[in-house]
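Milestone 3.1: sequence recovery, worked example.
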């Protein structure tokens, strides 16, 4: 969801942002995920240093993803299965003029 909201801020239309976020989640590896978590922790520490609990959680997730990335034979994207991304949908009113 963080990736989705960041894409909305680009700005992208909601359906496009969701599609891109889903594609990102399907393709991300543990190594990339570790880097992403660490980046988010650093960004949050800069804008809200008082939010130490979330920062520590992100740092822990980064370490866990890095540990998983270093395991032999683990190089497939962990969230490629629709179970992890298919439940996210866009629900809104459709404009009367299309």
């Amino acid at each position: 969801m963080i990736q989705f909201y960041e894409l909305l801020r680009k700005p992208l239309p909601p359906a496009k942002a969701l599609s891109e976020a889903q594609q990102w989640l399907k393709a991300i590896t543990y190594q990339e995920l570790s880097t992403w978590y660490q980046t988010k922790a650093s960004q949050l520490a800069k804008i809200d240093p008082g939010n130490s609990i979330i920062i520590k959680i992100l740092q822990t997730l980064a370490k866990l993803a890095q540990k998983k990335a270093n395991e032999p034979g683990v190089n497939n994207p962990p969230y490629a299965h629709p179970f992890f991304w298919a439940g996210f949908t866009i629900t809104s009113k459709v404009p009367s003029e299309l």
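The longest helix spans residues 30-47. DSSP finds four helices and no strands in the chain.
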